[in-house]
């Protein structure tokens, strides 16, 4: 694992050296089309005509794309690359960890006005099936593509919302479950044919073992299905495990359950080492172990079909219940209706999927342009999606407002103990596990207050909290596709931090990187929570002389002098003062505003300062820095931003006065707890989740592996 991690880091070191555009050649792995851009995942074969020894993956964004790219095409593009990076905040999925699990070493954008050059068209069987489904006039072609060939590129945000609410996303992402369904049907078919052969045609022949005579056909059929699914990691992993099982059956070798589990896990990690960082690995392993545990717990000895069906239903329900804590741990939210929805849709998919696959193969073989089995498959899929949509309308996903790790662990132990046979002190153990869940609802400490600096890229989003209450300062940016940092980062983080009452928002100024999430703030904290929210800005209420009392804190607006609609130099400047410490929040003011502010406010001293204008050289003048004289300074910047914030001269000015400096692009989310005991700083990358792939900045390395030739 260390060597794989070093290979990954070496690629990031290499990418960080690319100052200009590079020429990439490689294969398109997936294409997702947005409103104004296309997202392309590409396996890189060469960089600037130098071939990669082991091909990594990159993600490229193509804005205003002129041609439609497809999977498996071999292309040549000019792109600007940055090392793989993701925002780091509590309550949000770690993009950087996901990029690592997918062997994505860099992200970037295709050079404007430079069209990708198609070197080879897509000849793969998967591409042909995808094109065939696109050519048919099917209402639910996107769902059929997802469940049959693993292509989810065409699913809309509404489709994802339905799957999230019902907890059925795993059914429309080809995984070990689908491979298991195909294997079970193929094995049953071959076993039935062999039994029929023996009873009808060869009554006097010796007994034929289904495991022995169906070994190679099963390996070929399941392997072919893995190819259709583009060799997706969960599918190939399941195929490897099925192959191991079949070989053991063929050789009549007996391994204990523990040996099988350990060897299968080691084999998976040996073949796919980076999968240890993916959610799918733990969910798959967790599901298998849970099934084994349930079989042991129930000690199935059923004979009648009725009892077997009852036990399967019960096992399916309990499997979903035991997987809920793991889902909460990885995704920060759970769907309480998921066990019921899966109880319905897992059997439906298990029976419908072989027919869907048969319909696709038959219609593609005979090249039906209309009619055929796919029309019936489309109708069946339509009924299923309509039913899912109905369930989703009554069962929105539940997002936890607590720290998910201890909650998920306690829930898992509770469910595990409930399923265990009678144990000594079983009830006592369950009650002990309930304590962390109960403490989450106890009153929070109100003797201290906290400044939260969220990692929202090139933008600003802050919160001041005391207990379970908070007020916000700025929202981060919004994007053309409709999402925003408020919805993606700030709201999930506040839930995770158990902050559930927010009714005030200060907007420093109207630039998108500070006020883009205003609409989502009003929608969530106002409309969805049924509260009256206050919004203060330089144009409305936040002008010099205004003061507010919020719990034990005093908030004073010290700039601008008169209401202003927009402009960096008319940012709402706030000074938040507590019993012992104060925080200065200057927005994006520049040097001229700093000079005027110093003239009007003789005392600007504060222990904590959010650097004006993200650390731009047009701000943080020497006289301003000395006047504030902060102990702690925080920059809110994007990773390798094009303005190169914070400016080196600005960093030097704060260094000269002895201030400790933090940067969201380097430290991620930053929390500063202020109390009579002092100021305690906690950062996401250094304290909350200290992982090697979050620590490295891809700037330098004592030794890097040879990557290209």
UniProtKB/TrEMBL annotation:
**Gene3D superfamilies this protein is in?**
Ribonuclease Z/Hydroxyacylglutathione hydrolase-like
Q: Where is the Metallo-beta-lactamase domain positioned along the sequence? A: 458-639
SMART domains in the record: Lactamase_B
| Record keyword Membrane present | yes
SUPFAM superfamilies noted in UniProt: Metallo-hydrolase/oxidoreductase (SSF56281)
Q: State the compartments where it is located.
A: Cell membrane
Q: Which UniProt keywords apply?
A: Cell membrane, Membrane, Transmembrane, Transmembrane helix
Q: How does it sit in the membrane?
A: Multi-pass membrane protein
Membrane-spanning residues where?
171-195, 215-248, 260-276, 312-331, 337-360, 380-398, 404-421
> What is the official name of this protein in its record?
DNA internalization-related competence protein ComEC/Rec2
């Amino acid at each position: 694992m260390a060597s794989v991690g070093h290979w990954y880091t070496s690629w990031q070191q290499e990418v960080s050296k690319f100052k200009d555009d590079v020429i990439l050649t490689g294969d398109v792995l997936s294409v997702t089309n947005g409103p104004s851009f296309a997202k392309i995942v590409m396996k890189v074969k060469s960089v600037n005509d130098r071939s990669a020894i082991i091909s990594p993956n990159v993600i490229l964004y193509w804005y205003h794309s002129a041609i439609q790219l497809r999977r498996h095409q071999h292309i040549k593009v000019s792109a600007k690359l940055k090392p793989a990076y993701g925002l780091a905040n509590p309550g949000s999925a770690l993009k950087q960890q996901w990029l690592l699990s997918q062997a994505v070493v860099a992200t970037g954008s295709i050079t404007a006005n430079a069209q990708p050059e198609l070197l080879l068209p897509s000849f793969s069987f998967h591409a042909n099936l995808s094109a065939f489904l696109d050519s048919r006039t099917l209402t639910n072609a996107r769902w059929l593509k997802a469940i049959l060939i693993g292509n989810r590129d065409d699913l809309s945000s509404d489709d994802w919302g339905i799957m999230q609410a019902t907890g059925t996303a795993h059914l429309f992402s080809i995984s070990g479950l689908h491979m298991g369904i195909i294997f079970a049907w193929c094995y049953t078919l071959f076993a039935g044919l062999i039994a029929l052969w023996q009873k009808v045609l060869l009554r006097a022949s010796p007994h034929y073992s289904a495991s022995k005579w169906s070994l190679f056909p099963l390996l070929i059929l399941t392997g072919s299905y893995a190819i259709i699914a583009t060799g997706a990691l969960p599918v190939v992993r399941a195929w490897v495990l099925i192959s191991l099982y079949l070989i053991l059956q063929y050789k009549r070798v007996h391994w204990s359950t523990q040996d099988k589990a350990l060897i299968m896990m080691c084999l998976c990690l040996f073949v796919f080492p980076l999968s240890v960082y993916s959610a799918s690995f733990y969910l798959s392993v967790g599901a298998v172990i849970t099934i084994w545990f349930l079989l042991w717990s129930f000690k199935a000895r059923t004979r009648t079909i009725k009892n077997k069906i009852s036990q399967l239903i019960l096992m399916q329900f309990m499997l979903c219940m035991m997987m809920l804590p793991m889902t909460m741990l990885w995704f920060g939210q759970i769907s309480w209706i998921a066990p019921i929805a899966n109880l319905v849709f897992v059997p439906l998919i298990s029976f419908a999927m072989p027919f869907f696959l048969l319909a696709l193969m038959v219609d593609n073989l005979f090249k039906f342009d209309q009619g055929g089995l796919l029309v019936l498959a489309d109708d069946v899929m339509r009924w299923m999606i309509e039913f899912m949509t109905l369930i989703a309308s009554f069962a929105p996903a539940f997002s936890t407002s607590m720290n998910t790790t201890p909650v998920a662990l306690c829930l898992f132990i509770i469910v595990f103990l409930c399923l265990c046979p009678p144990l000594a002190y079983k009830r006592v153990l369950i009650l002990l596990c309930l304590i962390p869940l109960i403490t989450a609802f106890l009153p929070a400490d109100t003797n201290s207050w906290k400044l939260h600096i969220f990692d929202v890229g090139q933008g600003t989003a802050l919160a001041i909290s005391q207990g379970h209450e908070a007020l916000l300062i700025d929202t981060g940016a919004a994007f053309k596709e409709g999402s925003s940092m408020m919805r993606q980062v700030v709201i999930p983080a506040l839930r995770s931090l158990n902050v559930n009452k927010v009714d005030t928002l200060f907007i420093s100024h109207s630039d998108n990187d500070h006020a883009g999430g205003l609409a989502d703030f009003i929608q969530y904290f106002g409309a969805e929570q049924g509260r009256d929210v206050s919004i203060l800005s330089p144009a409305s209420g936040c002008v010099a002389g205004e003061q507010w009392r919020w719990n034990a804190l005093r908030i004073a607006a010290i700039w601008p002098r008169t209401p202003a609609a927009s402009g960096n130099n008319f940012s709402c400047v706030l000074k938040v003062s507590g019993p012992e410490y104060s925080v200065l929040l200057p927005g994006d003011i520049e040097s001229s505003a700093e000079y005027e502010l110093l003239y009007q406010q003789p005392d600007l001293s504060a222990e904590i300062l959010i650097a004006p204008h993200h650390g731009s050289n047009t701000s943080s003048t020497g006289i301003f820095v000395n006047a504030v004289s902060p102990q702690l300074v925080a920059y809110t910047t994007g990773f390798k931003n094009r303005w190169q914030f914070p400016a080196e001269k600005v960093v030097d000015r704060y260094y000269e006065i002895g201030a400790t400096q933090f940067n969201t692009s380097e430290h991620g989310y930053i929390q500063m707890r202020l109390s009579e005991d002092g100021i305690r700083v906690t950062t996401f990358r250094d304290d909350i989740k200290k992982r090697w792939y979050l620590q490295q900045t891809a700037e330098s390395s004592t030794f890097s592996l040879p990557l290209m030739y």
